[in-house]
Design a protein that fits this description.
Length: 160
C-alpha cells in the first residue's frame, strides 16, 4: 500500500465482507437461472406507474433517477470517491476510522482491489472523479496509519 503498517491501536474481529463485483455477478446469474424471475427494463413517469406493476417484488435500481419517480423531498444525490489499489492477498484486516464529518476513512481488501474510501458530498450530481479529492484521501489515510489521530476536525483539512 502507499503507506506503512498501521501504527495505532485498534480492535480485531471477524466479520463477513461482501465483495460487490463477485456477489452481484453471482446474484444476477442465479436470478436469471430461475424461471419465475424476470428482469424488466422500463421507464417510469411517477410513482403511480410503478405501483400498477403486477410483480409482487420490485427492486429499485434507478440511482439518481429515483427522484423522477418518487415525490420524496428527502431524496438527494450523494457523491463519493473510492481509490482502488492493486489487490494484496496478504492484507487480512479491514480498517475504518472516523476523523471528521463528512468523511469516514476505510480500507477493505477484496480479491480485485484494495478499496480506500470514503468521501461524502451531499447534493452533488457530478459523476466525474476528482484527482485532488483522491490525493487528499490517500494523504489522510497515510496520516492515520502513521498514528496521527485527529483530536478535532481542524487537525485535518477537509477532503471536500
Amino acid at each position: 500500500m502507499p503507506f506503512p503498517a498501521l501504527k495505532q491501536p485498534g480492535y480485531a474481529y471477524q466479520t463477513l465482507l461482501i465483495e460487490p463485483p463477485l456477489f452481484l455477478a453471482r446474484l444476477h446469474h442465479g436470478l436469471r437461472s430461475l424461471r419465475h424471475v424476470k428482469f424488466v427494463k422500463r421507464e417510469f413517469v411517477g410513482e403511480a406507474a410503478v405501483l400498477k406493476l403486477p410483480e409482487p417484488v420490485i427492486v429499485n435500481c434507478t440511482g439518481l433517477g429515483t427522484r423522477n419517480i418518487w415525490a420524496d423531498p428527502k431524496l438527494y444525490p450523494v457523491k463519493g470517491h473510492l481509490v482502488l489499489l492493486r489487490p494484496q492477498p496478504r492484507l487480512k484486516y479491514l480498517f475504518s476510522g472516523r476523523s471528521c464529518v463528512p468523511w469516514f476513512q476505510y480500507v477493505f481488501p477484496r480479491q480485485d482491489a484494495v478499496v480506500l474510501g470514503g468521501t461524502y458530498q451531499r447534493y452533488i450530481e457530478d459523476e466525474d472523479p476528482s484527482q485532488d479529492t483522491c490525493d487528499k484521501l490517500l494523504a489522510q489515510l497515510e496520516s492515520l496509519f502513521n498514528g496521527n489521530v485527529p483530536t478535532s476536525c481542524t487537525d485535518f483539512p477537509p477532503l471536500l
